Design the sequence.
């Protein structure tokens, strides 16, 4: 349907780690506005592992207009949080596609695990763009789908979080 909105499906940990690896911090409020203005995104799902100490960050993301889909977390042998959301993101996007809940989808991740989803959406003419953080870290599997990829690092000036007055930034997904 032409009247359906565009929807963004965001791998939160992949996005956070990718941008952090480029040496800057993403302003999620600016990202949400940018998605709305540039890509006509009416709903932005962000998939995150549920870590109680980040409850204030989650509330902030909801205030910015994100719909958060949480994944229960576990810990690896080194005490690192594990909350792989890939399957949840794929399932949500496929269900929404079958229910004709959107006009076009945006996938925000550099992870090649989404290549099958991108191909599925592309075959149905239901994908607008892949937003990856950097061309060097974007999976070759995503590049091989021949779906348009836009690199967020090119929009750093529009999307970077301004430092607080003390010179630090706040918020983390790590």
Sequence:
């Amino acid at each position: 349907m032409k009247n359906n909105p565009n929807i963004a499906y965001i791998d939160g940990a992949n996005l956070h780690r990718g941008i952090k690896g480029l040496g800057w911090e993403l302003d999620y409020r600016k990202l949400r506005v940018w998605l709305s203005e540039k890509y006509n995104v009416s709903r932005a799902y962000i998939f995150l592992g549920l870590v109680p100490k980040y409850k204030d960050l989650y509330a902030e993301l909801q205030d910015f207009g994100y719909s958060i889909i949480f994944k229960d977390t576990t810990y690896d042998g080194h005490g690192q949080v594990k909350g792989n959301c890939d399957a949840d993101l794929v399932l949500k996007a496929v269900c929404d596609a079958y229910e004709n809940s959107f006009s076009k989808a945006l996938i925000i991740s550099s992870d090649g695990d989404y290549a099958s989803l991108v191909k599925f959406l592309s075959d149905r003419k239901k994908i607008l763009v892949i937003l990856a953080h950097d061309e060097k870290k974007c999976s070759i599997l995503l590049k091989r789908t021949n779906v348009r990829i836009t690199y967020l690092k090119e929009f750093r000036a529009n999307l970077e979080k301004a430092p607080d007055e003390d010179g630090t930034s706040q918020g983390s997904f790590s």
In short: The chain has seven helices and eight strands.
